[in-house]
């Protein structure tokens, strides 16, 4: 059973290594709270695709806006 | 007196009301409209991130600006003092910009995604007397060194509460009177300072004066089609020059209604805003347009874009595919235009009603003289159609920068033989359309922002492991270019994925995500000249598989 939250946070902190993974909250918004910019978001989408084979279309970006939402979304799409 | 027969902007000048024998941007943007009976017109509609919505008429915004000016005055600040602002797109930021100008003080916006180092450097160079920011930004990026900025007298924090040593803006605004007589400013008095990056050395503060409003009024009409009552959405952040010249001043001076969206780019949100708010004129940037393209025409299908009358783009060249795609999807192509922090306003544009040549930045605006030039010793040679050279402009338009703050030598270097040199390489076709070719220097254009490699390299070598750093821009289909760093390591450090992440993390903390490198690679040595200068040009040529050009000055090669 894949821990999608952990995978998400791992890729998130690879894109933005200034973030300490232990401080990331389930409800933290990746742009508003964690200060990713739009290029970071594109890089995160590409990293998730490479790692999980999940294609995240532009209109679904709000679904990965927080670790909690992303975990649910990735589980549904990858599973 | 200005000669009406030779002044190309005489009409724009005559349409301004003037103030106390001089000129003041805030007066033209606000007070003059209220005095003319347009106080009830909608000036600003703010869309909050969470669905909130606030409307400000010209009278409302004038009162907010007046309150802000009164807050500044109450703290003993006066004409010429420097006010810095660093916040997201919230109404208070607009009140602060306009209130600062009303009070005869000088406004400098900073991009809220900057890290602490770019902020500090700019506040030091600009001798900031006031900073307007949020509590979160203050605590994360500023509190640690705030007391080392000896010019800083007042820190205003948005909202109801403020940390120690700062003043909460909301209660201060409530307590302030909604009337303030705009300070008399002369056309040549400084109004705005926008920072721009240099290839070497510190960022430069481009000084703009109140007379710039003549060109903001003119170019908003000529290049964007702004007119009274038009619903206009400039998606640029006021932290950059576009978000101030065309995100605050030009639309207000032209009595348009401006939309301000607090949120970052979000495809469906953006399409909904254009549809629901019936946006007529839309000014955006290639990075955003290419993100829309990635989502495909299908994603745009459910929306009604029939309100749109004119679309424009700025920041970096808009590729022909994006121009053509936008015409299919929106019924109107995005019209590319070109200008810089230094020019203060749009110089070259695909204008309303003119034929668009996809991939071209358009033609010079009326009154603007453009040359494609080549340096020949101390003089310039003007090149003919089809030749590639540096894009140059004849100085004299009203919004031209008047100085780089405290750097007369760097300012003087911009002018040769009666031309202003832009640093961009371009070519002009026989019909007069100008086409961007590249940068003449090492500056990096990413997501419409100009980044100086020196500032990035300086932050990188502050990391314990990094001995030397060379920073270049590499092509990226969405951002135009992205920042990439080449580093050598100090003894005792070895390349590893963990170290790469640590260095990038360090750079992001210092510089913020917009400026920090997206990729760091390790080298044993970097290519250098005999004088020890890292040859960024060579790093870039190799990265792109291009000819290496003249390498006679190469002393130590890359390994």
TrEMBL record, chain A:
It comes from the Bacteria. Coiled coil: none annotated. InterPro entries: ACP-like_sf, PP-bd_ACP. It comes from Roseicyclus persicicus. Pfam families: PP-binding. SUPFAM superfamilies: ACP-like (SSF47336). This is Acyl carrier protein. Residues 1-78 form the Carrier domain.
